[in-house]
Amino acid sequence: MAITIEMPKLSDTMEEGVLSAWLVDEGDAVSAGDILAQVETDKATMDLEAFDDGILLKKMIDEGDAVPIGEMIAVLGEEGEDISDLVGDTGGSDDASEAAASSETEAASAEAASSQPEPASPETEAPASPAGDGELAERTPEPVPAPTDASGERVKASPLARRVAQEHGLDLGSVAGTGPNGRVVRSDVESALEQREATPDAAPETAPAPSGDGAPTPQPAPTESVKIDVGYDTETISQMRKAISRRLAQSKFTAPHFYLTIDVDMARAASVRAELNERAEAQDRARISYNDLITKACALALREHEYVNGSYHADEGEIRLYDDVHVGVAVAIDEGLITPVIRNADQKGLTQIAAETRELAGKARDRELQPEEYEGATFTTSNLGMFGIEEFTAILNPPNAAILAIGGIRDEPVVEDGEVVPGKRMKVTLSCDHRVVDGAVGAQFLDTVRGYLEDPMTMLL
């Protein structure tokens, strides 16, 4: 019995996926556990596995097509099995299906033509009935011909490509296909549309109408402003960028944000970090960054301020205060931003946090993170200090109740014991969801974080 393969939900925020590559061909035998394709989600590119044995009878979508969760993308079954009841009209992209559809259209046209009465001769033709006799004459609509190319051959195109072309009034016969066997896919249609937009139609020249005395009639000066074409490049919105746009817009306009900023003395943290890294190198262990110190300080502070480690759930009518401390660390990649999670960060040492952070950041940049490595954060940090940013505010990472924006460490003069001495300062800003975290609670949390960073040896106790 044939089995349909549907687009799976591969992340907690995924709504649709892009099939980036097929790894098997139609007619290939597959076994449970084999990788059928690679799917681009809003977080990473992941493998699509087969859960049953069989023959890949039909691919329902092309490489590069985006489909929502639950939509059929392939059919698995036994060799030679009839799957017409499963694929239905969606199988029209196949040559055989297109030929069948073309034959049905031609047959319907012939039947309609044979059912029409013989045309009357000119001598006996009755005059047409005038309009307004209370009835409208019924007309049989002519079938819409399938798109053809310059040679009259039927154009092979994916359903999505057909829909996009129809929406923009584009003739598929003029589009060169880059898909299998010259099939037109969505990217081909988008390229053709971009080329059409970049080539404005030439305006026809019109000669001025002569006046009565033979002299040309003067034309009024144009009053409209001249349109200046500005060149630009376009790129398809990735699944990750769609998710970022959707989630952060929801966060910004749903959760009432407020912001708290403090200045932290990082002189002792710099000294302790240098000493710890000397020992780490001697033991061939991961070097500790300032970000690792901040992750550890936040994790310990979250243990003392449970509301900052919580989330607001309006539908359930509850505020959740989490037992575990999972710190998400924002990592910038080409497509956007992703937050690998350091789980139970309050229970881990600095070198372990350092090693895990580097491993997860590398996997994030290679788009190899698994869902369990980026889901479930209870608090998030975002560090732009390495880019020279001294201070900024971050948008909450839902459903977290807080996120810490970390600026760069500044070398500047400070006053100690009445004397001006060199100092190291760092500004951090806590964005809070006021539905969970009140101002005093957020301030107390920041004061605890500052205490750990200004006396980092307390984090080692």
From TrEMBL:
<dbReference type="InterPro" id="IPR045257">
    <property type="entry name" value="E2/Pdx1"/>
</dbReference>
<dbReference type="Pfam" id="PF02817">
    <property type="entry name" value="E3_binding"/>
</dbReference>
<feature type="compositionally biased region" description="Low complexity">
    <location>
        <begin position="98"/>
        <end position="131"/>
    </location>
</feature>
<dbReference type="InterPro" id="IPR001078">
    <property type="entry name" value="2-oxoacid_DH_actylTfrase"/>
</dbReference>
<dbReference type="InterPro" id="IPR000089">
    <property type="entry name" value="Biotin_lipoyl"/>
</dbReference>
<comment type="subunit">
    <text>Forms a 24-polypeptide structural core with octahedral symmetry.</text>
</comment>
<keyword id="KW-0012">Acyltransferase</keyword>
<dbReference type="InterPro" id="IPR023213">
    <property type="entry name" value="CAT-like_dom_sf"/>
</dbReference>
<comment type="similarity">
    <text>Belongs to the 2-oxoacid dehydrogenase family.</text>
</comment>
<feature type="compositionally biased region" description="Low complexity">
    <location>
        <begin position="200"/>
        <end position="210"/>
    </location>
</feature>
<keyword id="KW-0808">Transferase</keyword>
<dbReference type="InterPro" id="IPR006257">
    <property type="entry name" value="LAT1"/>
</dbReference>
<protein>
    <recommendedName>
        <fullName>Acetyltransferase component of pyruvate dehydrogenase complex</fullName>
        <ecNumber>2.3.1.12</ecNumber>
    </recommendedName>
</protein>
<feature type="compositionally biased region" description="Basic and acidic residues">
    <location>
        <begin position="185"/>
        <end position="199"/>
    </location>
</feature>
<comment type="function">
    <text>The pyruvate dehydrogenase complex catalyzes the overall conversion of pyruvate to acetyl-CoA and CO(2). It contains multiple copies of three enzymatic components: pyruvate dehydrogenase (E1), dihydrolipoamide acetyltransferase (E2) and lipoamide dehydrogenase (E3).</text>
</comment>
<dbReference type="InterPro" id="IPR036625">
    <property type="entry name" value="E3-bd_dom_sf"/>
</dbReference>
<dbReference type="InterPro" id="IPR011053">
    <property type="entry name" value="Single_hybrid_motif"/>
</dbReference>
<keyword id="KW-0670">Pyruvate</keyword>
<dbReference type="InterPro" id="IPR003016">
    <property type="entry name" value="2-oxoA_DH_lipoyl-BS"/>
</dbReference>
<keyword id="KW-0450">Lipoyl</keyword>
<feature type="domain" description="Lipoyl-binding">
    <location>
        <begin position="2"/>
        <end position="77"/>
    </location>
</feature>
<feature type="domain" description="Peripheral subunit-binding (PSBD)">
    <location>
        <begin position="156"/>
        <end position="193"/>
    </location>
</feature>
<feature type="region of interest" description="Disordered">
    <location>
        <begin position="83"/>
        <end position="228"/>
    </location>
</feature>
<dbReference type="Pfam" id="PF00198">
    <property type="entry name" value="2-oxoacid_dh"/>
</dbReference>
<dbReference type="Pfam" id="PF00364">
    <property type="entry name" value="Biotin_lipoyl"/>
</dbReference>
<dbReference type="GO" id="GO:0006086">
    <property type="term" value="P:pyruvate decarboxylation to acetyl-CoA"/>
</dbReference>
<dbReference type="GO" id="GO:0045254">
    <property type="term" value="C:pyruvate dehydrogenase complex"/>
</dbReference>
<dbReference type="GO" id="GO:0004742">
    <property type="term" value="F:dihydrolipoyllysine-residue acetyltransferase activity"/>
</dbReference>
<dbReference type="InterPro" id="IPR004167">
    <property type="entry name" value="PSBD"/>
</dbReference>
